[in-house]
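Troubleshooting log. The previous structure file for this entry was overwritten by mistake, so regenerating from the original sequence record. Sequence copied from the archived sheet and checked twice against the printout by T.R.
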Amino acid sequence: MDRTIEILACDTIGALPSIQQLLAIPRDKALRVIFSPSILPVREEVGAEWKEKLPDFSVGVHRISPEINVKKLITEEEITAHAAFFEQCAKGYRNLATDLIHVLAAQLNESIDPENAMHTFGKYKRGRQNGKMDEWNYFLHGAHCGFKNVRTGQKIEVYLITSLEFGVLDPFFFVDFIKTTASFQPLPVAMYDDYADGHRILEKMVALGIFERIQPLLEGYEEIVVRDRSKV
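Regenerated output below.
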């Protein structure tokens, strides 16, 4: 999903949009505020104020260009209204991820280490990182194995630093999975910012008690999974 971008060039502080005007930005639009040289020194201060007063927005202060980009993220109300949909997506993610990683292990003639799946797949990152498995291309990288269906375009990333729990949800990868899964279309709610919207979805679903945090194998890492992990 793509937003329309409105560009607002400001020569004076008084020309900057108010907080009330920013709050009125719809989710399908992004506002790009361009600061003229005369007010450029206040850009960082303005950006900090907007970030504080707009918790439901992404406020991006550009590192190089003299601009701030403001976008409204998915709301808690929208997530709550569509909680059953996101639960269904998480269950589908877990089931598909589990099936694919076990099929890959069988193709590689491996038994997945129940203590840590990375012990099984990590060695392939040094050589045969890419491959094909039926309709799926796979790519071992970092802490994940990515799969893409060559026929449908569906994408899913399987987290490997885990003791056989393959339904661990990453904000970006979860939204990417939802957007590329044909059975979830048309989406009941718009998601424009894959990582930022995904992060809000995971946090709200945990707060609702539908998702939960589990004990990670690596200290400092966070693992979120759907609470109901029965097969669907």
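The mean pLDDT is 95. Archived copy saved in two places this time.
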